[in-house]
Amino acid sequence: MKPGLKRSNAPIFWSLFGAGGMLSALFGPALVFITGIAVPFGFILPADAMSYPKMLAFAQNFIGKGFILAVIALFLWFAAHRIFHSLHEVGIHAGVGAKLICYGSAFVATVISVVVLLGLGF
Amino acid sequence: MTENLKIIEIEVLRYNPESDREPHLEVYKVPFSDDMSVLQGAQYIKDNFDGSLTFRWSCRMAICGSCGMMINGIPKLSCETFLRDYYPNRIRLEAMHHFPIEKDLVVDLSGFIEKLESIQPYIIPKEPRSLEQGEYLQSPKQFSDYIQFTSCINCTLCYAACPQFGLNPDFIGPGAIALLHRYNMDSRDGAAAERMELVASEEGVFHCSAVGYCSEVCPKHVDPANAVNINKTNAARDYFLRFLSPKGGSK
Ligand code: SF4
Ligand code: FES
Questions:
Q1: Does any CB of chain B come closer than 8 Å to the CB of residue A7?
Q2: Taking the model in full, what pTM does it have?
């Protein structure tokens, strides 16, 4: 075995990426349909399905909070990882800076989501 | 053998380290019959136009893995690729991408050989076994777990296809990881934890961004991309669970 091998920390980002990828594949299209087409056009779903009181109640529910957090945070970790690696693939070896911007924004957005969701109360 | 033969133009990337500063293309007009492979085309050039043209080959039957080259930009074994499939267009032969060129179509494979050694490509028994214990028995299921990954002929076409290897030659790469997986999956082997150090390292599986082109070009249907992906999951599990398991894959 080669000497001096360093364990990669990639599993952390890769797991978030994998979870986000799976989630976005499962829920992404449905969410786009519901929030972008069905509700605004009152098509299939009633137009007030996403009214403020309903959404607030959803975000105050424990499971609702979990869903919102997962959808926001994991989608972003997925995107951060994909963008960072795609940059590398198209020959932009942006290095630490790009890494910080990509994963950093996912991290910041995750923290903000947690704070806001907790702030909404139960 | 000249009557009734069609003529195909073969453009070859030439490089002589003793006289050339960089590789350049040269075109040869090669008469061919329908049963002639690209390798035979190269041999025709060597025999009739320029004896210094250098390329590797041995078996001529897609089993030794030495005749790989870029054929119109795609990594292929030249002995199982036929000139007739390109005629009447010109065909371009280049050394395999992502490897340093030694001469003409011959690349330097020493980095790959080192990687091959580093994966410990041999069965490391779980425990010492005496002659009296007899042979190992393996069920068809245990056999099918690894047999696909034994088909690798070390042609390195998958390396020529892999953009991540092209960007970072330290990456262990598809072929070697497929072979590593072959030994890990063998019921007689007990060294998966030892090999994990390499799999989970910075040179290991996480370089892969799941492009999948390696599996597409593999002439033996080894599906190295699948081996890499399975080992990503294994390495992630090892990363998070290593504190729980007494042995723990690597440090
Ligand atoms: S995995 Fe396939 S393409 Fe890669 S070296 Fe082995 S036989 Fe060649
Ligand atoms: S010459 Fe052996 S694989 Fe092509």
A1: yes
A2: 0.85
